[in-house]
UniProtKB/TrEMBL annotation:
It comes from the Eukaryota. This is Phosphopantothenate--cysteine ligase 2-like isoform X4. It comes from Camelina sativa (False flax). Belongs to the PPC synthetase family. PANTHER family: CORNICHON-RELATED (PTHR12290). It holds the Pfam family DFP. Residues 52-232 form the DNA/pantothenate metabolism flavoprotein C-terminal domain.
Length: 278
């Protein structure tokens, strides 16, 4: 598919999406967070972090409503644990201001939580965050651990009211959600360090799919997980080779895989920043 066709699909997705309910509030919170954690140290000395050290972690699954006044929806699997644990580890490693969708419990101005549920909310918020960060810093990180719906019911073809039951099986045609990773990389946040995630249930195709995603979307790494072992190990697929990252139950810090994963990713991000500035 040509990039023009993809861009058209993305534009029509956003044009037909129901607007975010509290868009102004979200923009205000986002701008306040960015300003508070800005590295223009003249104004405030809130942090020693560099402006490049902002991380947007996405976490949890998106839903696809079946009715505009939604009673029923299709969910995408994710407990939100990976994003939450990764956010905690980011803060532990101390390099990050974290703008996070999802459930972690840290506060104090270093963490901004922006909850979402639908695919419409998720993608609109991702675009807002990416473009807001683009304006203030060059090398932010996007750590896209959310499980994002691949199929959806376009808003304009969705019934307004609750679908009637009692008239036999329900036929629903789902459209494909346009892939936003390429536009995130090319337009929204071209200088950001971008980590995407790939979950499969069939371990035989996992690495192949992750490698294809790496090449197609030109992200800096793809974190590949198999559903049943995702808490034990992941494979970080990148152009420098594949690295298996495991948890180590004998070491308290490393008893969750995210700790070792974030250590590796933060290290790669630092190298990326150094290379970008040299
Ligand atoms: O949220 P969780 O800890 O239960 O699972 C995390 C995950 C497996 C959903 C995530 O690591 C992931 O791979 N997300 C991308 C899923 C995908 O769209 O392929």
């Amino acid at each position: 598919m040509s990039s023009e066709v993809v861009e058209d699909e993305i534009s029509s997705f956003f044009e037909s999406s129901p607007p975010l309910k509290n868009m102004d509030g979200i923009i205000k919170k986002l701008n306040r967070f960015i300003k508070l954690n800005s590295s223009s140290r003249g104004e405030n000395h809130q942090s020693d972090w560099r402006e490049e050290d902002r991380v947007c972690v996405t976490s949890g699954g998106t839903t696809v409503p079946l009715e505009q006044r939604c009673v029923r929806y299709i969910d995408n699997f994710s407990s939100g644990n990976r994003g939450a644990a990764s956010t905690d580890s980011c803060i532990t490693f101390g390099s990050c201001e974290t703008s996070c969708y999802g459930p972690p419990s840290l506060a104090d101005g270093r963490l901004l939580k922006l909850p979402f549920s639908t695919i419409y909310e998720y993608l609109q918020m991702l675009r807002l965050i990416a473009t807001a960060l683009k304006d203030v810093g060059s090398c932010s990180m996007f750590y896209l651990a959310a499980a994002v719906s691949d199929f959806y019911v376009p808003w304009e073809s969705m019934t307004e009211h609750k679908i009637e039951s009692g008239s036999g099986p329900l036929d629903i045609r789902l459209a494909q959600v346009p892939k936003m990773l390429s536009i995130l990389r090319s337009n929204w946040a071209p200088n950001a360090f971008c980590i995407s995630f790939k979950l499969e249930t069939d371990s035989k195709i996992l690495i192949e799919k992750a490698t294809k995603a790496l090449q197609k979307y030109k992200v800096h790494a793809v974190v590949a997980s198999e559903l049943s072992t995702r808490k034990e190990e992941v494979v970080v697929v990148s152009s420098s080779g594949n690295v298996v990252v495991r948890r180590d139950c004998d070491k308290p810090d490393e008893s969750i895989v995210e700790y070792n994963l974030i250590r590796l990713i933060v290290d790669r991000h630092s190298t990326y920043i150094k290379e970008s500035h040299s």
